């Protein structure tokens, strides 16, 4: 799957977002090592701590289906800036991959690519505590 195809899946996932508070819809498309894809969108809640990011929705869907080996994730947001994963999502991603590729897109269609270790250089890992 090309970067553009994965980003398009993330964009399509963003259309399903429930974002009545921020009005900022985000979609994610997670690619597993075996080629399977899991998508997610942000789901907001009036109890803000119960809000879930698109990236974690995709990750939790994958894990709940038995997938734990991820190669990359595409994240799309409608804004002018590249849609980057929050700190919590970065930490959750590192639980399953030390150095997956992270594609961050913006509404205009442009995107940037990072390695996860660039975005989260010192994560908490199993055995660190």
* Strand and helix order: HEEHEHEEH
The CATH architecture comes to 3-Layer(aba) Sandwich
Query: What Rg do the Cα atoms give?
Result: 14 Å
Q: Which blocks of ≥5 consecutive residues have pLDDT under 50?
A: none
Nearest-integer average pLDDT: 95
CATH topology: Cytidine Deaminase, domain 2
| Highest CATH level, the class | Alpha Beta
Number of domains: 1
SS element count, helices: 4
Distance between the termini: 37 Å
Strand portion: 15-25%
Gross morphology is: globular
Specify the CATH homologous superfamily. Cytidine Deaminase, domain 2
The description of the largest β-sheet is: 5 strands, mixed
Give the strand order of the largest sheet, numbering strands 1, 2, ... along the chain: 2-1-3-4-5
What is the total tally of β strands? 5
Share in helix: 25-40%
Query: Could you say which structural class the secondary elements and strand pairing correspond to?
Result: alpha+beta
Notes on the protein architecture:
The protein has helices at residues 3-14, 54-64, 87-96, 116-119; strands at residues 26-32, 37-41, 70-77, 101-105, 111-115. The chain is of the alpha+beta class. It has a 5-stranded mixed sheet. Strand 4 (101-105) and strand 5 (111-115) form a beta hairpin. The longest helix has 12 residues, at 3-14. The mean pLDDT is 95.
């Amino acid at each position: 799957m090309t970067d553009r195809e994965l980003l398009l899946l993330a964009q399509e996932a963003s259309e399903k977002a429930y974002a009545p508070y921020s009005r900022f819809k985000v979609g994610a498309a997670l690619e597993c090592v075996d080629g399977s894809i899991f998508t997610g969108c942000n789901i907001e809640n009036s109890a803000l701590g119960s809000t879930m990011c698109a990236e974690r929705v995709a990750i939790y869907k994958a894990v709940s289906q038995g997938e734990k080996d991820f190669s990359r994730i595409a994240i799309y947001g409608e804004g002018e800036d590249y849609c980057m994963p929050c700190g919590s999502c970065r930490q959750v991603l590192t639980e399953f991959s030390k150095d997956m590729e992270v594609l961050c897109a913006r509404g205009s269609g442009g995107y940037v690519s990072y390695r996860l270790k660039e975005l989260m250089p010192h994560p908490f890992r199993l055995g660190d505590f």
